[in-house]
Amino acid sequence: MERRDFDVIVVGAGPAGSAAAMVTAQGGAKVALLERGLYAGSKNLSGAGLYDTAMLERLYPNFHVEAPIERYVTRKMLGFITPDQLMSISYQDDKKALAPYEGYTVLRPQLDMWLAEKAVKAGAYLFTQSVVTDVIKENGAVKGVIVNDNEKLYAPVVIAADGVNSFLAKAAGMQKEFHPHQMSLGVKEVISLSRQTIEERFQLKGNEGVAFELVGSVSGFANGGGFIYTHKDCISIGLVAQLSSLQASGHTPYQLMDDFKQHPAIVPMIAGGVTREYGGHLIPEGGYDCFSKLSDAGIMVTGDAAGMVLVTGYLLLGINYAIESGALAAQNALNALAANDFSKASMAGYNKLLNESGILPTFKKFRKAPVNVVNNVHLQNNYADLICNIMHNLYDVGNKPIPKVLPMAKGVLKESELSMGDVVKDVMKIGGALLW
Ligand SMILES: Cc1cc2nc3c(=O)[nH]c(=O)nc-3n(C[C@H](O)[C@H](O)[C@H](O)COP(=O)(O)OP(=O)(O)OC[C@H]3O[C@@H](n4cnc5c(N)ncnc54)[C@H](O)[C@@H]3O)c2cc1C
């Protein structure tokens, strides 16, 4: 008889791993949740906006009351930024202020600890300071893992939830090395401010919150963007930049963060604040075309480990897909345990569940967004300038006679680094990725 220490081993106690461990344990399986950090969430970092509240309520009944939510996102803002201009679009929706709300701002250490606690309460065994250093493979199937270089743990199902650049997916032969153009570096700072100051500066009442995404000079000449999220008594401010173009730009992320924080439109938002945390983390932004193989005999790959971060230019969604994919892998693990079948075909039930849930169709639909939008050099560097300069001219009544809008915009375009041909090509590219 094969050795079996656990029914399921989940590697990584981030959102994906804790959700996977909770659902498998709820289904009666004996589950080990292995985390390399001192505690769940100790090494994790996000913006962080958390969306798809219907899915969260389904998995965690009463999530909006019990989870460590900071604020409800009632206002979304999109900004185009140059070194001395900011043009922003603000969308306020009071429907979002009604429970269970449409999105939350969260702080990852608190959220991750809460999610891990849910897994433990369901019966999973959480082992911290446990680094998975290899997979055990026999006859082409994953049969377990090696922990801290020496301890062998066996289970017929292993769920890889070890985050971006997944060691497990690579060790199991399911993911190739990433190229720097498929990966972005996110850096962020948490700045303490009083609750009252935040509410006054961002015109919020009660637990309302803002999620502000910015594009343009914020990432230097690297492809990327910036973000600001309001929490109860602090603000998350950060930027994301594609690794290859960051390297080519010659900027350091720290210098870009300093420039961002000193922007004339940003200074008043954070003035008087005290930095509480500072960190950096990679984000797999390649989309569907950079996904790892999702399942194989004895193993399934979830969340960032699989590459499930959707970035469209106006959305950056990873935590919700991590939680949902973890739960779906768990559901499939329970099916496999019931059938006592851990073959490649049985594990592929996970791919089917991802398809039925709408996750795979969404990623497939937006598969061109990483190249055509997120890493579109013009969009990242020139359109923010163009839009801000059009706004500048729109309100410049010193121009006599005042021009009508279209000839004025044509004049601004002519003085920019973009040609009409570039604009037409970009409309087709961006349209193909996002609009049709
Ligand atoms: C700056 C930034 C901003 C972001 N903003 C947002 C946002 O606003 N909204 C959003 O939805 N997403 C956002 N994301 C993306 C989001 O953070 C990820 O998609 C999400 O954390 C993925 O969850 P996960 O569980 O798959 O991986 P992770 O959260 O990375 O968890 C992986 C876990 O595995 C552990 N681990 C790794 N290797 C091993 C090993 N060998 N052995 C044992 N344990 C291991 C790690 O310590 C970690 O706890 C952002 C990311 C960054 C970097």
Could you characterize what this model shows?
38% of the residues lie in helices and 27% in strands. Strands 3, 4, 5, 6, 12, 13, 14, 15 and 16 form a nine-stranded mixed sheet that branches. The protein has a six-stranded mixed sheet with strand order 7-2-1-11-18-17. A three-stranded antiparallel sheet has the order 8-9-10. The protein folds into three domains: 8-68 and 107-175 and 292-367, FAD/NAD(P)-binding domain (3-Layer(bba) Sandwich), CATH 3.50.50.60; 181-284, D-Amino Acid Oxidase, Chain A, domain 2; 371-435, no CATH class. A hairpin with a 3-residue loop joins strand 14 and strand 15 (234-242). The chain starts with 7 loop residues before the first strand and ends with a helix. It has helices at 15-26, 53-59, 63-66, 108-122, 167-171, 195-201, 243-249, 253-261, 267-270, 303-306, 319-339, 344-347, 349-357, 359-365, 369-374, 377-381, 383-394, 405-415, 420-435, and strands at residues 8-11, 31-34, 49-51, 69-82, 85-92, 103-106, 125-127, 132-138, 141-147, 151-154, 157-160, 183-192, 208-216, 224-230, 234-242, 274-284, 295-296, 299-301, 310-311, 316-317. It contains 19 helices and 20 strands. With 436 residues, it is an alpha+beta fold. It binds flavin-adenine dinucleotide.
